[in-house]
Design brief:
alpha/beta, Rossmann fold, 2 domains, four-stranded parallel β-sheet, 6 helices, 20% helix, disordered N terminus
């Protein structure tokens, strides 16, 4: 079993057998959209833990960007939604996107797509609250939901089976609960936020494009959701 023709590989001869180990060196590039408290926290923790990762920190306020420090940080002075719309392509050089703005970034990105010009936000009747855990209605029309009725620590490790605060068994994962939500004629479309570090959630470009694709050709109104195990945000939309 030859290995000389492969450049990213080590070959180990063990008891006259060749075990080929292919080592791919991939530089992760992380976009952090928003340089406020949570964006800065994500940058600080991840850059300390992953010295070889590169970060793009996006914010429309230069004062916030100026506080960022590190050798592998590129700062972009831009509105986060506009940055995502203009720069996220199928071949974009980015591994993960961390939403750290006080808006539903994935929902706003879908609404900003040119071919979705007929997709608009709508208000939901208050009776949806009985279907949701601890709902809070934002001024932007979004609904914020949580399995917790208390303030969670910003470094939660999101274990699969237990709440780190109460030590009780975890309730149904929020992303699963929203996926199975049955409310009138609304279709739930859920983007799962994956944990990249304690208290830090994000999603890949592939996930985001899949999320967008699910909104295409939908005739029913939709609930655009981003959720992790405990928390979520819902943007109600319809096509006019």
């Amino acid at each position: 079993m030859g290995c000389g023709h492969r450049s990213l590989q080590d070959c180990i001869d063990l008891d006259n057998m060749y075990i080929e180990i292919v080592v791919y060196v991939i530089m992760k590039i992380i976009w952090i959209i928003g340089a406020g408290r949570f964006g800065s926290l994500a940058l600080k923790r991840l850059s300390k833990q992953h010295k070889d990762w590169k970060f793009v920190l996006v914010d429309k306020t230069m004062e916030k960007l100026a506080k960022a420090k590190g050798p592998n940080i590129t700062m972009v002075n831009s509105d986060g939604i506009r940055f995502l719309k203009e720069n996220l392509k199928s071949d974009a050089d980015v591994s993960w996107i961390i939403p750290s703005l006080p808006v539903h970034l994935a929902g706003e990105w879908c609404l900003a797509q040119t071919y979705h010009k007929n997709l608009t936000k709508i208000q939901l009747p208050l009776d949806i609250d009985s279907f949701l855990p601890n709902p809070i209605h934002g001024k932007d029309g979004n609904i914020y939901v949580s399995n917790a009725d208390f303030l969670c620590p910003d470094n939660c490790s999101e274990p699969e089976n237990m709440c780190t605060v109460t030590k009780l068994p975890r309730k149904q994962d929020m992303f699963s609960r929203l996926e199975s939500l049955s409310y009138k004629e609304f279709i739930p479309i859920v983007l799962r936020s994956r944990q990249l570090g304690p208290g830090i959630g994000g999603y890949s470009p592939k996930q985001l494009f899949s999320f967008l694709k699910q909104t295409e050709h939908q005739k029913n109104p939709m609930l655009l959701c981003t959720a992790c195990r405990c928390h979520g945000v819902i943007t109600p939309v319809e096509t006019k």
